[in-house]
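Working notes for the structural subgroup meeting. M.R. asked for a predicted model of this chain before we commit to crystallization trials. I am recording the input and output together here so anyone reviewing the notebook later can reproduce the run.

Input as submitted:
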Amino acid sequence: MGRTASRRLLALCLLGSLSAHAASPVWAIRGAHNTVYLAGSVHLLPAEDAVLPQGFDRAYADSSKLVMELDLGKLDPLEAAGWMIEHAALPAGRTLRGILGEQRYSRVSAAAAELGAPIELLDGQAPWAVGVELADLEFLHQGFDPEQGVEQQLVRRTHADGKPTAGLETLGEELGSLEALASEDQMRFLDQTVSELKRSQQELEEVLHTWRRGDAATLSRLLAREFRSFPALYRPLVTMRNQRWLPQVEQLLREDRNAFVVVGALHLVGDGGLLELLRKDGFTAQQLN
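Returned structure, recorded in token form:
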């Protein structure tokens, strides 16, 4: 992922309509014998504005399989919940209050209460997990529908059409990037999440509008701004994951059949983005209209 500023990255990880000549957040990369379509996703979309840009329909129709960050076509919700329970839990004898201190804990408690989440249910969880949960709740309050995210819509199509799905990483690899943050960085992540809960709607609308227009330059500036503000978070969440995914995308480009790869939009752009990494390795990407 990539749910607030940090979450924008996880949720990316953008409202507005496409003009007749707008670009799409989908790129076509030619292999020797096939095409790999690489699309930027918004993992959650507003229920009232969930139609995918046209480039998604073209790429999906022309591909034999769908590849996502996580293979949502095979993800077991109970297994995912079990992973979170195991890895988000604090060690015995430790509490969120004890880790954060009274001032931070008071702010988190107030934010949780506003979102209808009793702090008692969060007090045994690590700061990174509390940040993700609060951001998820804020998205729901703002009308974002997990079932209308880009990947969920595409997975439903694969089930109906019998197309195979695959993932670039496991749940442990994705959320492990947050779990592995140093304690102070986890607290900073939670601080940032709480601070931005109330102003995230306007920023998300900006990102949604930018995404729908396929505006890679603006997305790149958004990423650069966030990276500069918190490199300890964005390096493992974006840059390092891109480097792990690159060999898998390039393997798809050596195959005979077309594939549709869908990842968070901010993974595509900017310094260290997948489009740049592929270009450095000799591949050319053409943005779809």
